[in-house]
Amino acid sequence: MRTDGEVELTPCPHGPLLVRGATVVRDRDGRAHPVTRPVVAVCLCEKSQRLPWCDGTHKVIPR
């Protein structure tokens, strides 16, 4: 549970990292990506066509 101003991170098994309460997500190169939704899914497989956001590609990658 989070309180105002805190960011909550929830890893999804074999999927993205759900981020709640953030205003910005920085990618691996340090570029800032504004967050405009209450919850965003950040790609952990690094195969998304929309990095740093998850596009569901992890679902078709063999484990």
Describe what you observe in this structure.
- The chain has 63 residues and is an all-beta fold.
- The protein has one domain (8-60).
- 0% of the residues lie in helices and 29% in strands.
- The protein has strands at 8-11, 17-20, 24-26, 32-34, 39-42.
- The chain has a three-stranded antiparallel sheet with strand order 1-2-5, with no helix packed on it. The protein has a two-stranded antiparallel ribbon with strand order 3-4.
- The termini are far apart.
- InterPro entries: FeS-contain_CDGSH-typ, MitoNEET_CISD.
- This is CDGSH iron-sulfur domain-containing protein.
Features:
2Fe-2S, two-stranded antiparallel ribbon, mainly beta, 3-stranded antiparallel β-sheet, 2 iron, 2 sulfur cluster binding, metal ion binding
Question: What is the structure about, briefly put?
Answer:
By secondary structure, the protein is mainly beta. The chain contains no helices and 5 strands. The chain has one domain.
